Amino acid sequence: MTILALDTTSNTASVAIRKNGETVSVVSLESDAGFAHLIFGAIEECRNEARIVLDEIDCFAAASGPGSFTGVRIGLTAAKGLAESLGKRVIGISNLRALSSFGKNSLRAVTIDARRSEVYAAVYDADLNVVVPETVGPVEQFLATLDASLEYEFISAAGKVLAPAVALCAERDREKWLDPAALDANYVRRSDAELSWKDR
Among 3, 40, 135, 147, which residue is least crowded by beta carbons within 10 Å? Predict the structure, then answer.
């Protein structure tokens, strides 16, 4: 099984290839101007390093959010386009779930900066199943939902290269692979444009 995974949801992007249960290539990118102009070059670099051709890839996976709205769309569009052109399957992986794979403990409380003094947050177990659903709000609000009698491992997105984790989750979710047309984003919070429209 070979999976190519993308994450373009923050100022640091990554591409990874996972083959037969191990990560064989990772390329990381940094850009304040987005990744639309860089992502396909990074895919080629990753593919060449892994010494595979695109047709060998069984599934294209993308970090589906939460994160930058534009960044989420870039990764999903790239994955969908490649899968559609090659007749392959796709899957979107929650950034929060992917982040939980960095943990070691049985309960993993994961957070991503959502700006506006808020965080995207959730709790997952050791099998990467959600225990406390994904939410967005002040960190104090999230902490108040946790059971004080339980021990949580807290994991933040800072410094994490996410594409290998996205590929791992995609490998575990083989039964959830989709037709490219069915792939959608996981924004958790509505865009500024939607919020402004509602306020009007």
Answer: 147
Token pair recorded at residue 146: 């946790």
Candidates 168, 129, 159; CA nearest to 5 is 168
Q: Is the dihedral of CA 132, 138, 144, 147 positive or negative?
A: positive
Kindly report the pTM of this predicted structure: 0.91
Report how far residue 121's alpha carbon sits from residue 108's, in angstroms, rounded to the nearest whole number: 10
Phi/psi of residue 38, each to 5°?
A: -115, -25
Tokens of 6: 């993308």
Select from 126, 162, 121, 164 the least CA-distant residue to 144: 121
Residue-wise pLDDT tens digits, 54-72: 999 999 999 998 988 898 9
